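Holo model, FE2/S2 (inorganic) cluster. Inputs:
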Amino acid sequence: MADIDTWIVACSTDDLDPGSGLKIAGTCPPIAVFNVEGEYFAIDDTCSHAEYSLSEGYVDGDTVECELHFATFSVRTGEALTAPATDPVGTYPVRLEDGHIHVAAAQRCVIARSRI
Ligand code: FES
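Output:
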């Protein structure tokens, strides 16, 4: 898990339907949040294989398939489940508050977000 020292508001739960992912604006490296049937997870948005955006991928249960070369990752653990990716992606704690998804990240990763 990445170093954690700030929480950011990723989005409203209304903005993230079950079975979908969303890239959070203003974090570096980019972070994506995913809705797995009402459970929310945050991982690095950048595929560990060739740096494609995982939030553009296909969500199936608690996995996401990268759209570029079809590696799959667990959105729970960040583990690379299938080739061509072999390295995991980072994961981040998530909490819900007032209908919004909050993600914990390293402060150095937050470049254009208001901190809470
Ligand atoms: S960039 Fe994701 S599998 Fe190649």
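The chain has one domain: 5-106. The chain is about 0% helix and 40% strand.
Archived with the compound record.
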